[in-house]
């Protein structure tokens, strides 16, 4: 930007040209702090960045051509929303973690060493991923967004800078229709008695659109015989995999999914 010809009366400070930026003060502090991070504070292996920092890296890194900041942001987002089902661990896929969150012994729904995100960040992440072409994470962010109640989906969220993030009408429609589709992914053709009871527990989970929830821990804690446990576990795993493979279609996204 400094190589562009400047008018004679251009604003200067101590002889240097002044460039007016449209970015917020908070975003510039995050961007410049990372840009001149000589001590590797931001990118150290033990430093967990908040989402609002990573968002600034992606937006300003793209805008000002600082590719390594852009790539760092993408890498951290993809670590929370990976393309492999087994690596996609959060309170909406891991029943043990979900139980801890429900009991209050754990508050972090998205345990990740590199990036700290929360439910209220999903709206901003959808907008960010759509704007910057991060199609690989969109099905998973939509899945997480579908766990919100209607009021939260309509109201959106306000971040620590006071910025209001809200889904567009198109995205809101995708989430609502996708959530309804997830809730319809039920199979009642299982046997009665204890296995049927276990089925009902699984259906209760699915009413909250948590079709990717791993249920092996629930199965192993029941009094079912070993054959039934194995059969149910295998069937649940197959259904879980099918739900994963259909996420792109469920949310009507024109993206390659699942990734090979």
Helix-strand blueprint:
Blueprint: E1 12-13, E2 16-17, H1 25-35, E3 49-50, H2 51-63, H3 67-80, H4 95-103, E4 115-116, H5 122-131, H6 138-145, H7 150-155, E5 157-158, E6 164-165, H8 169-183, H9 193-206, H10 216-220, H11 226-245, H12 247-250
Helix pairs in contact: 1-2, 2-3, 5-6
Fold and architecture overview:
With 260 residues, this protein is mostly helical. It has a domain at 23-80. The chain has 12 helices and 6 strands. The chain has helices at 25-35, 51-63, 67-80, 95-103, 122-131, 138-145, 150-155, 169-183, 193-206, 216-220, 226-245, 247-250, and strands spanning 12-13, 16-17, 49-50, 115-116, 157-158, 164-165. The strands form 3 sheets. It has a two-stranded antiparallel sheet. A two-stranded parallel sheet has the order 3-4. A two-stranded antiparallel sheet has the order 5-6. Helix 1 packs across helix 2 (51-63). The chain starts with 11 loop residues before the first strand and ends in a 10-residue tail after the last helix.
Key structural traits:
single chain; 260 residues; mainly alpha; two-stranded antiparallel ribbon; two-stranded parallel ribbon; 6 strands
Shape: elongated
Instruction: Output the strand order for the largest sheet.
Output: 1-2
Helix content: 40-55%
How many strand elements?
6
Average pLDDT score: 86
The N- and C-terminal alpha carbons lie at a distance of 40 Å
Strand content: under 5%
Briefly characterize the structure.
The protein contains twelve helices and six strands. With 260 residues, the protein is mainly alpha-helical.
